[in-house]
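Support case: S-adenosylmethionine complex. Customer-provided input:
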Amino acid sequence: MVRLSMSAEVHQFLSATIKPGDSVIDATLGNGHDTLFLAEHVGEEGHVFGFDIQAGAVNNSLKQLVTHQLDHRATLMMKSHVYMADLIPEQFHGHIKCVMFNLGYLPGSDKSVITLPESTLSALNIALNLLAEDGIISILAYSGHPGGADECSAVKAWASQLPRDGYRASVIDLLSSHRSPPEWILISRTQML
Ligand SMILES: C[S@@+](CC[C@H](N)C(=O)[O-])C[C@H]1O[C@@H](n2cnc3c(N)ncnc32)[C@H](O)[C@@H]1O
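Agent response - structure generated as follows:
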């Protein structure tokens, strides 16, 4: 039996969506697993823009890329994701194929530094404006840490009020687990508004 983590399921789904030449965003770098995955999939012509507020996260992510000789495919910034639109060159706006959010704290580090509902929702609204016509936003939201359940609820409430003629919003919530797995919220752009 193959047991996939939710994160692996996200990668499996996105690997069918992200094509060589795509421009994508990792809104929460963490330890760089998602950034490495994105850099592998955008190919030589594509690009990854990555954001995190912690130096350790940016350094860990850069190390992952350097180890795999993929650092030239990414621009990593120690900045909050609320500044994405200001920091990504304008020529990419409206052409971003995928924005990944993996919420919560940096594993193996200070658990009090977490993503927060207000800035997360602000960044999600900004991400919508950066998306390509067929772009998607993938959000992994955790309820197991203090503040996590409120943030997860806020993200689902935000997703459920998106205009139905422009976006498709869905949630995957793993029922068959004794632990507290993340919920996966997926937003697909269905047409230009
Ligand atoms: C669960 S980790 C991300 C995991 C990561 N994607 C990976 O593959 O390892 C969440 C990260 O969000 C970062 N974070 C918190 N607030 C942020 C913000 N406003 N902007 C960008 N990153 C933020 C934390 O520093 C932490 O590194």
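The beta strands are 23-26, 47-51, 74-77, 96-102, 131-141, 167-173, 183-189.

Case will auto-close in a few days if no follow-up is received.
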